[in-house]
Predict the structure of Serine/threonine protein kinase.
Amino acid sequence: MERLRSSDPSEIGGHRLVGRLGAGGMGVVYLARSPHGAWCALKVIRAEHADDPGFRARFRREAQLAARLSGRWTVPVLAADADARSPWLATGYVPGLPLADAVARHGPWRHAHLLPLAAALAEVLADVHAAGLVHRDVKPANVLLAVDGPRLIDFGIARAVGATALTAAGTVVGSPGYLSPEQARGRDVGPASDVFSLGCVLAHTATGRAVFGGGGVAAVLYRTVHEEPDLDGVPPELDRIVRQCLAKDPRARPGARRLSEFLGEFEPDGWLPEGLPALVAAQASRIVGLPVPEPTVVAGPGPGGEPAGPSSPTRRHLLTAGAALGVAAAAAGAWWRWPRDTPAGPGTPIRRPRYAVGLIGHRADTVLTSHERGALLAVDAHNRDARRAFDLVLRTADDGGTAEGSARAAVRLAAERDTAMLIAAGTNATVPETVQACVRARITLLITRADTHRLNNPSTTTSLLLRSTSTVGPAAVLRYLNRVVKPARTVIVHDLTDAEESAETVRVATVYGKLDGETALEEVAADEEFTGVSRRIAERPEDAVLFAGLRPGRAASLARALRSARHRGACVTGEHVLGDRFLVEAEGWMVGTAWTDAEADPLTGAFAASYRRRHRHAPAPWAAEAYDAVRFAAHGLAATDGDGRYALRAELLRRPWQGITRRVAFDPDGHFFEANDDGGAFLYRVTGGSARFVARWDDIGGGTGGET
């Protein structure tokens, strides 16, 4: 348990907070005393989740369902408030030892102790499923060992059976190594998924090992879906039942009630292995008599998910600017009611309202310059149209290449009374902070370049992505492999230097089965060379290679090693590795991007000609995409009937729009960018130290894209 921070409240809903039990993606969990003096665990949900209108309804429903759980191996729901600024849920506190810690400290359990553990967990899952819930995160860390038996805790990502999931389809919810194959694939899950997780927990407790091995997340997910579990060391008495729980097909797994009947009643006498009762007792003794700390802050949880409190200078700056923005917005509400056309007579200029488009990026980054030039062409083209209802102006802010600078730039631009929307030209490292600043400022943000999985929750923000993220994979090269190369096997080389980000590509190619042929996975540690893996790949010289990584230097090293090993198969990768070192080493490689070459793309010829007339050189990457972003925004503003800033996002979501680089459309429920036959994916080939345009996604393998 951690001390309370200065930013933590002292009280929530009448519960006095004592310390922090933990924090995660959904929120912060505190140790607290209820108004009646009972110890409880109080979970506060982060505001970004609560901002989703549907979330509160689901949270309320699931809290009510969880309150029905009365089995002896669950912890009771004591109180909840779904309508609080940051919703919270209080459950009984169990001063026990997590099963994960117990196994790590004392090693595997024997059958005599495994059997009562399995009986209790099967019984609690049967109760959970009977109440209409699926836990979805059964793992050793969520099993607390108390003297009188185990408790299953943390229903933070549980959901009602048949209800709309709290997360979008296609994203993994749960803990790799303990989630089911259907969870690993991002599909809807039911009670059978919890049974699979129970099998993983029991096998881990029996062996001390992860049932699907270690390594990167992508490798664990791959083995979960495609390989058999490692059950060496599971006692023979439980081996058959654990194997049934770990069946790949959910329909082949036993139900929790059937498991409970087979395993029998929990036997409390001597159920904990030697040495653990003393640890459990020590854990409980630390809680008894804890003093309630002095007050920290009076206010409840703040809008950012963390409870409000004394602010850092940066946060004070943001809050002050946000307050100023509120005043500006009030004034703007009247200002936007100007009539669109107010001619006073022949020859009198038409007075039109003006909308500003804010562009954020790093001035030292050539991508910002490219965005700026493409955006200015769109602004000029709009303002030359005599039928226009409003004028546009472009303002650019330098974020200094940092996340904090990006947030400050967003606040600064949003505080201008005529700013209608912002465009983020920044990187995966900076744009997530821009998103949060725009949520606070209540202004639409269009994201052109960044593609991190941290942007995969658009329905709870004011942002819209104008491209597919890495979650759906490098679409152009996947299509190239399937439609042109058609290899019998593709080896995915996963560079663990940036394991979390690059894991999305591995999942799409292997777990989601987006490649038609057989796949194999090779993981390469951050400090490891590619010589060994290249030699293994070259043993099957016709195999294709997909590099899943983000660093040009690492991709260059793999290309050099494959060439030295005389590998002959096709080699493909994604846009992040494009850099001088890679281009020198990777002759013949195919690269998928989210930007087109406007000079070579037959559908962007008119734009390229205008760009050349204006700037005396060919358009650089991202110029055409920025042009489309401004035109897309103008298309939405034209439909808002003078209420541009506050109605823009809703209008942009309303119907598809066709630009010069892509068709822009969004999923009606999650507001995700819809990748389709014209979804902004492009294929390049490395030739002579440069990346040369080959085709758009829909032309790959169709006979119209050069060699494709």
Observations:
- Residues 160-172, 297-345 have pLDDT under 50 and may be disordered.
- The two ends are 59 Å apart (CA to CA).
